[in-house]
Design brief:
The complex is a heterodimer of chains A (599) and B (381). Chain A has 13 helices and 37 strands. With 599 residues, chain A is an alpha+beta fold. In chain A, helix 8 packs parallel to helix 9. In chain B, 27% of the residues are buried.
């Protein structure tokens, strides 16, 4: 007796599980019951699972009967002529959809020639075992799985055209590639999903070292390539302000704020604002410039205070460009929010050409950082005068074994010379051996190497250099978003220690382990200096050991416990420790500082 | 020390090289070089040796892998190694996760495999279930009847009296009656409900061998057979006459400390840590490890590097509070009015003063005019 579960619920038991499951599947293939039904018999649990619920991942497979696929040549012919459609194949039980549970009981052949008696299904195309992203990696059957994985992940981070209606959209922080190209070495998946939204460019790469500038996964790019637009992107960042209403009939004002307003910056900051308090399009703004001038009513307005002039000062809540960023105002939108408040949205654009530290990647998991931009006259060149766009380090190849990158370079070379795109789909791309022959016919060395000359000296390199064309992507991680440094800057209110994080212009923390390292070197005074960011002078009463107070009017300190008469000395200590003493007091612990001559 | 270098060391060198045909000037050079090298090897005052030791052990710890040593042929038995073992030692846990012993046998047995096997068999713990052919309940008399496997008893060199004795010792409230081929166990206060539980308890009760030693394995080390055991009982194993107690060790530091004393425990700490590091192929200078072992054992008791161990021995309140559970330390310190002398590193970082390590250690000793402006140092009570 086997238990039968429908969508995970027990609905009954049955005597002959195998016969039951077979009859269900036969009925489904004959179209007697819904083809959305999937069924599986679990031998170990002795239970039958029937699934009809939503949100199952299912994929189509060709049904195989005794080693012969039901999709015969005759049917293929009729499909080509348009006599049959996909739905017909499903209805006739030639193709069926399996979900993850039913996949457990089947044996799927990858290729038609692998078929044996035992097989129950056949892949429609071998590439179907990959996801969309991973099937875009060319010649992925020539790469280790780890690199294949990274390669498909890299493509998700690439900058391209993310949506064709990008001009009408206001997405938070997006990048747009200026001159996207379709890859020379392409996968057949691209043909299916269209090739309008590409995210890279075809470049000439030479695999060699360029002094030390491409060690450890960095790459060297020719200045001329960048000037011609390689990897050039626009970075969009929208800003918005809402004219909020507050209880008591108070409203935000969008205007150029008065100089009396609390938190008013300098006049310079508001120079781009029109009379309505909103910036004009095409204004070139840098960090700290105001985009939308806005003032808010003072908070906590009591009855009496509303008559006093001092409490009636409005606050400046203008929207400013993020510190360290720059850009051009592209669009100004005036609209209404869901609550009916006036809403102002401003989009800014910043053109970013590649700079040292930006991240690039090919489609093979060979990601790297731009190490140096070389003037084109210093770049190596081939005998035929070709200057590579990118110099890629050969040290990245042996350990990672990304053979498909070399094959793509070969394909790209043949493709650009012969003027055609090359199919590099996994398992079924054009054969590398054929491409080598074609390259030879085109008048190049069949192994893809070329004699090269050093651009700086004009001397010929001893070794021949492998040159080819590869599809390169610029990834969304750019130094412009990350770089930050500070000498002085904002501090936290409570501890008087520097703030944390780039957005708050924070400092870089010298952590616990770094501290130990300095102490380990015996650099005692350096440690003191590094941790003196919050040092203060406090007055201590030597009689009671409590902190004294400095009276600014009389210009001398006095102790709250002992008065002015006791000896009060200034000491230097970290503000955090003073705070700690205060916290101990709040715990009810009396602290007493005993002062003593150091020498 | 300084005087020893000046007077004794040149003498010692002289003794060693006086026969050689070197010239007097060369001999002088050798002496000078030796003394220089000796002085170079000494630590400078104010060197932060504790931190350097911690770093030298902590950095390789990040690349250590959890690997276990497996007993040959017994899949479920393994000895914890790698980082978990290091943490276990440094925390000075009362019971190691996998206690084990290296039992050396006396010279006259150590070459003979058969004899060593016999000793191994002797020290392995025997439970009643292993030597019993059947154990069943006699419900009429409310007793448990145990029939022995005579061969097993003979193999383990046991006898009925011994079994009875240890049964009476291990389980309270029973009487044992010997029979021809086994024993019958009665309860002093017969109770139906407890009878079944008694039977289950009897199966695992210890009757012979060394208690705690669940598995033994004779292995060859340096051309001699020794017995590797799983489970540790140092005190009992040393009473076995075939065992060479001078060479026998355990990996349970607390047991070593109680049986052999704190010096042996210190050495065990060093050996165990070095064994793990060597097994992982991580070169760490033994002096770092000895420093840690010294610190753990300096009080005469084994103290782990935990909040209950050496961290609680720190003299400074602030240093203790900054480690773990600050509130408790602060409140305890305040109830007795402790004073922090600000003599070590952590406190001085907290109040932003130079730490008394390295360049911060030496002070200027000068007579200053007391009437001039004073420089102050902070103290906290």
């Amino acid at each position: 007796m086997s238990d039968v579960f429908l969508d995970g619920k027990l609905i009954g038991t049955i005597e002959n599980p195998k016969v039951f499951v077979d009859s269900l599947i036969t009925a489904r293939r004959e179209g007697k019951i819904s083809n959305f039904l999937n069924v599986n018999y679990d031998k170990n649990l002795d239970s039958i699972d029937i699934f009809l619920e939503k949100n199952r991942i299912r994929r189509p497979l060709i049904i195989v009967n005794k080693g012969i696929p039901l999709l015969t040549n005759d049917i293929k012919e009729r499909l080509k002529n348009g006599e049959l459609s996909w739905d017909d194949l499903v209805m006739q039980g030639i193709i069926e959809y399996l979900d993850t549970s039913e996949e457990e009981r089947v044996l799927i052949a990858l290729n038609e020639k692998d078929l044996t008696e035992k097989h129950t299904h056949l892949e429609i195309n071998p590439v179907a075992i990959f996801s969309i992203c991973s099937s875009l990696v060319p010649y992925s059957n020539f790469t280790p799985s780890a690199r294949f994985n990274i390669g498909s992940k890299s493509q998700k981070q690439s900058v391209g055209i993310y949506a064709l209606n990008y001009l009408n959209r206001l997405d938070t922080s997006t990048n747009l590639l200026h001159y996207p190209q379709i890859p020379i070495t392409h996968s057949f998946t691209e043909e299916i999903f269209g090739d309008k939204k590409n995210s890279g460019q075809n470049v000439v790469i030479a695999i060699m070292n360029y002094d030390g500038y491409n060690i450890e996964d960095s790459i060297v790019i020719s200045k001329a390539s960048i000037d011609r637009g390689f990897g050039r992107i626009s970075h969009y960042r929208p800003y918005s302000a809402e004219r909020l209403r507050y209880p008591g009939g108070q409203v935000d004002q969008v205007c150029i704020p008065d100089k009396e307003t609390e938190g008013y910056g300098t006049e310079q900051d508001y120079r781009f604002l029109n009379e309505d308090g909103i910036i004009y399009p095409e204004a070139e703004v840098t960090g700290g410039d105001v985009l939308i001038g806005k003032t808010s009513p003072p908070r906590f307005l009591g009855k009496l205070e509303s008559f006093s002039a001092a409490a009636n000062v409005r606050k400046d809540t203008s929207v400013k460009i993020r510190s360290g960023e720059k850009g051009l105002v592209t669009d100004v939108f005036l609209t209404e929010s869901i609550d009916g408040n006036a809403l102002i949205k401003i989009n800014t654009r910043d053109t970013r050409s590649p700079e040292i530290g930006d991240k690039f990647s090919s489609r093979h998991g060979q990601k790297g950082i731009l190490g140096y931009i070389v003037p084109v006259e210093d770049m190596p060149f081939t005998a035929s005068g070709i200057v590579p766009d990118i110099i890629f380090s050969p040290n990245g190849l042996p350990k990672r074994m990304t053979v498909n990158q070399l094959i793509e370079a070969l394909c790209g070379k043949v493709g650009s010379l012969a003027g055609r795109r090359i199919n590099g789909t996994a398992f079924q791309g054009e054969k590398p051996e054929d491409l080598r022959k074609e390259l030879l016919e085109l008048g190049f060395r069949e192994d893809g190497t070329e004699t090269m000359y050093d651009g700086r000296t004009g001397k010929q390199y001893e070794a021949r250099i492998f040159v080819g064309n590869i599809y390169y992507m610029r990834l969304k991680y750019q130094v412009a978003d990350k770089v930050q440094a500070r000498a002085r800057g904002p501090v936290q209110l409570l501890t008087r220690q520097p703030t944390e994080g780039k957005a708050k212009e924070g400092g870089l923390r010298l952590g616990e382990m770094e501290k130990e390292s300095l102490i380990g070197h015996g650099a005692s005074l350096l440690v003191k200096e590094r941790f003196s960011s919050d040092k203060t002078i406090e007055y201590v009463c030597e009689k009671c050991g409590d902190l004294a107070i400095f009276d600014r009017y009389k210009n001398k300190p006095f102790c709250l416990v002992c008065g002015e008469k006791s000896t009060i000395s200034p000491i230097e200590l970290s503000y955090a420790f003073k705070l700690f003493l205060d916290e101990l007091k709040s715990l009810g612990i009396k602290t007493k500082l005993e002062l003593k001559d150091k020498y | 020390m300084e005087s020893w270098i000046k007077s004794k060391l040149p003498e010692e060198i002289e003794k060693k090289i006086f026969r050689s045909s070197l010239s007097a000037a060369k001999k002088q050079e050798i002496k000078k070089e030796t003394i220089d090298q000796y002085k170079k090897a000494q630590l400078n005052p104010g060197e932060a040796i504790g931190i350097v030791s911690a770093q030298s052990l902590g950095e390789p710890g990040t690349q250590m892998t959890m690997r276990t040593f497996h007993f040959v042929g017994v899949a479920e038995l393994n000895v914890t190694l790698g980082l978990p073992r290091i943490i276990e030692i440094l925390d000075a846990r009362k019971e190691p996760k996998t206690p084990a012993m290296m039992v050396a046998v006396k010279k006259k047995y150590s070459q003979n495999k058969a004899k060593v096997d016999k000793i191994a068999n002797k020290i392995q713990q025997v439970s009643l279930g292993e030597i019993a052919e059947e154990i069943f309940l006699d419900l009429a008399n409310l007793s448990v009847i145990i029939n022995f496997n005579e061969k097993a008893i003979k193999d383990r060199e046991l006898n009925y009296e011994g079994i009875t004795e240890s049964l009476l010792k291990e389980i309270k409230g029973i009487d044992v009656k010997e029979r021809k081929k086994g024993i019958t166990v009665f309860m002093k206060v017969p109770e139906m409900k407890k009878l079944y539980r008694l039977k289950e308890k009897l199966k695992s009760v210890y009757v012979g061998g060394i208690k705690g030693v669940t598995h033994t394995l004779p292995v060859i080390r340096d051309g001699e057979y020794i017995i590797q055991t799983y489970g540790s009982n140092l005190k009992d194993i040393m009473e076995i006459k075939e065992v060479d107690f001078l060479k026998t060790t355990s990996n349970n530091i607390h047991e070593v400390a109680s049986v052999l004393g704190i010096e042996a425990a210190r050495q065990t700490v060093v050996n165990e840590i070095m064994a793990v590091l060597n097994e992982q192929g991580i070169p760490v200078d033994i002096r770092h490890v000895t420093l840690i072992a010294d610190t753990m054992c300096k009080t005469g008791n084994l103290l782990g590097i935990t909040r209950f161990g050496i961290a609680s021995q720190k003299s400074s309140i602030l240093a203790r509070a900054s480690f773990e559970i600050p509130l408790r330390h602060l409140i305890e310190a305040s109830t007795v009015g402790e004073t922090d002398q600000l003599t070590s590193v952590v406190e001085n970082i907290m109040i932003n003063q130079p730490v008394p390590v390295g360049t911060g250690l030496p002070g200027l000793v000068v007579k200053i005019d007391k009437t001039k402006k004073k420089t102050k140092k902070v103290k906290k009570k």
